[in-house]
Amino acid sequence: MGDSAGVPGSEMILPQMDLVVELEVAICDCCGLSEECTLSYIQAIRERYGGKWICGLCAEAVKDEASRKVISADEAMARHSSFCSKFRGSGPPADTALHLIQALSQFLRKGIMMDTPKSSTTTSG
Question: What does each C-alpha distance from 6 to 3, 10, 13 come to in angstroms?
Fold first, then answer.
């Protein structure tokens, strides 16, 4: 009952609605990532983080930092911002191939160290 599907002349006519959503580019105050967001979303994030706009990834890092170290959200935000500014200031390595090789070597060494027992006792006899 009330289902008019398939009945000729029963199509529902909807008025055309022009929905305009204004987007603004917001730049993360921590990492510098830029995103297009609605003005209301940007305002909500700024209210949550003391006037600063931070991206979702940085927000998660701040939340994690605050929960692990039992510090205030403001202190966690300051620590994360400091980390991001140091990371951005370092720039890319001069020789990216060498950097990759060194990183993989370190990774493999750590993996091998994790696999070997720290102390093995053997008896001969």
Answer: 9, 8, 15
CB 54 within 8 A of CB 28: yes
Written as six digits, the tokens of 36 are: 């297009």
Model pTM score: 0.54
DSSP state of 116: S
- Structure-model confidence comparison of residues 77 and 14, the more confident one: 77
Task: Look at residues 29, 31, 28 and name the one whose alpha carbon lies nearest to residue 84.
Answer: 31
DSSP line for 53-80: ---HHHHHHHHHHHHHHT--HHHHHHHH
Query: Contact at 8 Å (CB) between 57 and 80?
Result: no
Q: Are the C-beta atoms of 57 and 31 separated by less than 8 Å?
A: yes
